[in-house]
TrEMBL record, chains A, B:
It comes from Entomobacter blattae. GO terms for cellular component: cytoplasm. This is Farnesyl diphosphate synthase. One of its GO terms (biological process) is terpenoid biosynthetic process. GO terms for molecular function: (2E,6E)-farnesyl diphosphate synthase activity; metal ion binding.
């Protein structure tokens, strides 16, 4: 894989940062504080979803929407916020003592440490609900058909045969030797399907034809797997300080990973192969897809 | 309030039982078992949502849909199943050690006792997702506008300013003296909004005018509150065997309830007043609404 120039990297990073700011603003508005008795719940939801993160999934929504001709940035920001809320809910529940039992998230106390377990469970529950609510509301798109398609695809990506199903398989795999196809299936569900939804969502919002939508699905599938392999590599090579969360968790939980199966060099090669595949799927969009192409390099070269 | 005749009671009960059977069948089909690696998750979802319960919410969907001219019973059963899944998810999470810590549900081990905490958290999460998925799918109604309206209303009923918000307020209220308006607000969120959605859903599915939809909303609001007051009474007067769950929980958790504020007799009167109000809202539908009227008596006279 060719090393991208420093200038390009800066530009992608600027674009990512700019997008993250806009998303924080949108999330902040959607999750308005008030004086209702359930305020503690809103506080915990805000804590879980605001204040950091690279917002890669939200960025994918915004970039794919732009390429697919979505002019109304508010609509794209709502869909991106919905994906970020869904992702945040999964992290809040994942960190719970009964699950991964992780006290740290992005270098801060995880939601159940900052609040308490019950509040964290409810905050995750309500963030999931809100992700669907936002997609269903008229402000997201004038066409009910577009909105309900977004709802359906997010549900399929995140439910029992998507993200949550993947989390279950991940838990059941602790201490077991999984094969490479098993690991690929696990991660295509656990992290892959939501990333695929993020890139597909732009095409749904832009009401593109099937062919174009298929390219974004394929891009999401390949960059999602590359992202996960890079995650496995980081878990063994990066420090807790770099990660902002507990390092070496996979080995500790005796999980089969891409690294345990392919070795670090083999895993790196596979990540780079998939990143290159992902880039190919959007190459037909030319200059418009520059950031999505840059992103394929970014996900495999990041340090956190 | 007039005591309803034994014959009428039997007929409502037969209708309820028949509906519960149909709903179990539909839920069983929607939650098909298979041989996927995430099977343990599906098993836990099935355990949480199948096997019992009065299916009052599902019944309300079916009856309101019938009155609103919905001919396609499969569509109504899908919406009813969605409501039952949403309700089941809330019970699974409610029973968790960090929440109500209840080992029993309908006389059986609660989901986290039968499986484990992590599986119960994930099963609840996936049941919520599936409730939205089912509403969004084309099989529920040919009109995308109807489907997306159902999604939006279910989200509003069950999220941070609905059911989950109510659970948060309920938890925060433990050990505190709440006023009657506080208690009413709590329960209109915690149990009321989902019951209101169940009765409104039939009108949405039947694409009725605003006036008719408003009557079902009002019916749901009043029967929901009557139901909750009856629940508070049962918690102090019924045995664990009758309830199939832990009795006396409210007093144990030092919660303010309708009984602690109004006394048993006062609470009974308020429940009957609200049941009569609920019946009035659907009286214009005549014989068609007979079961919904009978149901207003049933919810305040039930023993579990």
């Amino acid at each position: 894989m060719n090393k991208i120039s420093t200038e390009e990297t800066v530009t992608l990073k600027q674009s990512l940062t700019q997008c993250a700011h806009k998303l924080e603003e949108t999330l902040n508005t959607l999750l308005a504080s008030g004086n209702r008795p359930e305020e503690r719940l809103i506080d915990a939801m805000r804590y879980g979803v605001l204040g950091g993160g690279k917002r890669l999934r939200g960025y994918m929504v915004m970039e794919s929407a732009k390429i697919c001709g979505v002019r109304n940035i508010e609509q794209a920001l709502r869909v991106a916020s919905s994906v970020e809320m869904l992702h945040a809910y999964s992290l809040i529940h994942d960190d719970l003592p009964a699950m991964d039992n992780d006290d740290l998230r992005r270098g801060q106390p995880s939601t159940h440490k900052k609040f308490d377990e019950a509040t964290a469970i409810l905050a995750g529950d309500a963030l999931q609900t809100m992700a669907f609510q936002i997609l269903a509301e008229e402000e997201t798109h004038p066409s009910a058909a577009v909105r309900v398609e977004l709802v359906k695809m997010l549900a399929l990506a995140s439910g029992a045969h998507g993200m949550v199903g993947g989390q279950m398989i991940d838990m059941l795999g602790e201490g077991k030797n999984l094969s490479l196809p098993d690991i690929k299936n696990l991660h295509s569900l656990k992290t892959g399907k939501l990333i695929r939804f993020a890139t597909e969502a732009g095409a749904i919002l832009g009401e593109t034809n099937k062919d174009i939508r298929g390219r974004f699905v394929a891009y999401g599938r390949d960059i999602g797997m590359a992202f996960q392999i890079a995650d496995d590599i980081l878990d063994t090579t990066a420090s807790e300080e770099e990660l902002g969360k507990t390092a070496g968790k996979d080995a500790h939980a005796r999980k089969s990973t891409f690294v345990s199966l392919l070795g670090i060099e083999g895993a790196k090669q596979e990540a780079q192969r998939l990143a290159a595949e992902a880039a190919k799927h959007v190459s037909a969009f030319g200059e418009q897809a520059r950031f999505l192409v840059d992103l394929t390099h970014f996900v495999v070269e990041r340090r956190n």
